Amino acid sequence: MLDIEKLKQAMGELDEDTVLEILNGVMADGGAEAEKAMEACQDGLNIVGDLFEKSEYFVGDLIFAGELMTQAVEILSPALTSGGGSAKGRMIMCTVKDDLHDIGKNIVIAMLQASGFEVIDLGIDVDPQTIVEEAKKNDVKIIALSGVLTLAIDSMKATVDAFKEAGLRDQTKIIIGGAPVSAEACEHVGADAWAHNPQDTIRICSEWAAQMQ
Amino acid sequence: MDNEKKVDITKYPEGLEYLAEHLQLPVPIEDPEARKAYVFGLIDLLVRQ
Amino acid sequence: MTNQELRQYRAKLFRDASNFVKPDRVPHMSFFVTWKILDAGYKLSEAMNDYDIMEKVVRRHQEEYGFDCILEMGARNAIRIPMALGACSYYINDEAGTVNFKDKAICEHDELTELAQDVKKFFWEKGMSRKYPMWADGTVTLTDVQKALDERTLFMEYMGRISKIMSEEYALPPYAAPKGYGYIALDFMFNTIRGIRGLSIDMRKDTGALEAALDAVNARYFRPGIEMLKKAPVGPDLNACFDYDLTLLCHTILNQKQFDKYLWPYMKETLDVLAEKKMTVRLFMEGSSKRFWDYLKDYPKGLIVMHPEQDDVFEIRKELPNVAILGGMPVSLLGTGTKEQCVERAKALCEELGKDGGFMLTQDKMVSFRNDAKPENVKAVCEYMRSL
């Protein structure tokens, strides 16, 4: 019998041994409780996010949490009927053109997924036109742009401009994140919001998703 | 400067000893320890770059 | 003033500011890296592959702007040495004017014990194999290694030459004293050996293996430096702007327990020795420096010059009145602001933070890309700083 609370707490405490033991137990029992186990892992990841916000956890803990969540999905996926939580709808995230950093992006994606978004990950070094086309193709209205290098600001601006040129800017919300972003950079880029951490990104994107529904 | 396949230079310590003996270095041949240290300095730099 | 006098005058500006003695004027340091190549009209790959071009770039940077010290003289991305073995961790895009570093770990988590057992063997066999395909497949030859060695010699010659030129012809003091560069073992793990992702896992999983590896890496690479420092004579090297440099990277990912266990003890040992020797250290902190503040507040004035990448320098002064500040000029302002805004910022910094010493102006981040700074803004700030 799955102990949901124990799994959730173990995930929140990043107790890898306990998490894997419980999940392997779920699968050994036939996987009937895989959906519930996945939800408990996602709730546990939200605890991780809260602890990050309180500065008890740092970026390294988020990276480890992402790794643990990946393992959880791998173990449970044969028994999962849905593709995971997407209650808040779809969004796109990527690292912008000429920037090859992916760690920050990957952390934020893991946390967004845990909070209920279906995130389309376009990868790194993504040019503005590709982002616009993918947004159109997938009918996505929330875009998160990541970057580490100072030049990412230029690429973020070019991306926002590309949405304007495509006539999609008014119906799209764009958030920028990463080391070089700031309130001034956000204004310069013409984005709707900016964030330095996953929790702010989740909060802002969740508000947008609620408004859109 | 070849005949180099006699020793696998990618193995330690035999590769280091071979390179320290055979490379043209600005360190006298009479000081093998200093020559090894010089070669290892290059390896450190190459691993970091 | 002769060049020698001017060089000493500039070094003294930094020394006075570091010791909270009112300097003749607030000194101005260049933290421009690859930007200066693009500013001189060259492609990145051209300058990085040709030391004569790089020399022209560095000369022009000083002729055009006129700083009191240049921190980076074209040696940051030494691509010719690894390229002699057919690989390089830098990805250069000349069209975009960008350099990205490929974050590639040379050690896996389950190899930490092996690393701890013999660091040299690990670097030689596994480290080299992971960086250089010809090492991995065993096709590397003595001739290849000789080429890399020759490239290293050329690089060292360039470093010697450019340092001499900038010192003698342009009267610029060296930024740090000879051998005055330190590093923390955990940063080496973070930056070179395990990477960001790997170290994050190591600190949560089988931490004994990480600790053993850290001890081994520390003993081989950093302990000798500390021991040498302990034997150094007391007192600063007044020919250089600072005695020592410590660049800190991995604190950006550590939680408090990890910080206290893996980073602070090593850093504290270095700071304590430097304090005992009455030397000055520049601490460059990637990301936010805030988590260091409590740890630094009891050190004496004159020891620490903090170069923060992200934090408000006015707030730092309030919180850490014992720490001199290097920085304050946002790259974002140099890149998108007007000349007037940039000069206004420099003026406010000098008046509020520098009137009694304790402040030196430089850019908050390494200036790397074309749009990081407008040349006219840089020129205006340099002219203003020289006019003080």
Class per helix and strand makeup of chain A: alpha/beta
- Bin the strand percentage of chain B: under 5%
Broad shape of chain A: elongated
Shape label of chain B: globular
How many helices of chain A? 9
Q: Nearest-angstrom radius of gyration of chain B?
A: 11 Å
Low-confidence stretches of chain A: none
Helix-residue proportion of chain A: 55-70%
- Given this structure, which CATH class of the largest domain in chain A is correct? Alpha Beta
Q: Major sheet of chain A: order of its strands?
A: 2-1-3-4-5
Q: Which structural class do the helices and strands of chain B define?
A: mainly alpha
| Total DSSP helices of chain B | 2
Fold and architecture overview:
The complex is a heterotrimer of chains A (213), B (49) and C (388). Chain A has 213 residues and is an alpha/beta fold. Chain A has 2 domains: 4-79, Methyltransferase, Methionine Synthase (B12-binding Domains), Chain A, domain 1 (Orthogonal Bundle); 89-212, 3-Layer(aba) Sandwich (Rossmann fold), CATH 3.40.50. Chain A has 9 helices and 5 strands; from the N terminus they run ααααβαβαβαβαβα. Chain A has helices spanning 4-12, 16-28, 34-53, 59-76, 103-115, 128-138, 152-165, 183-189, 198-212; strands at residues 89-95, 117-121, 142-146, 173-177, 193-195. Chain A has a 5-stranded parallel β-sheet with strand order 2-1-3-4-5, with helices on both faces. The radius of gyration of chain A is 18 Å and the shape is elongated. The N and C termini of chain A lie far apart (36 Å). The model of chain A has no long low-confidence stretch (mean pLDDT 91). Chain B is mostly helical and 49 residues long. Chain B has one domain. Chain B is built from 2 helices and no strands. Chain B has helices spanning 14-22, 32-48. Chain C is built from 18 helices and 10 strands. Chain C has helices at 3-18, 35-39, 44-49, 51-65, 80-83, 112-117, 119-131, 133-136, 142-168, 185-193, 195-202, 207-231, 256-276, 293-296, 313-319, 331-336, 339-353, 375-387; strands at residues 29-30, 69-70, 90-93, 98-101, 181-182, 244-248, 281-285, 304-308, 324-329, 359-363. In chain C, a hairpin with a 4-residue loop joins strand 3 and strand 4 (98-101). Chain C is globular and about 60 Å long. The two termini of chain C are 18 Å apart. Chains A and C meet through helix 4 and helix 8 of A and helix 11 and helix 16 of C.
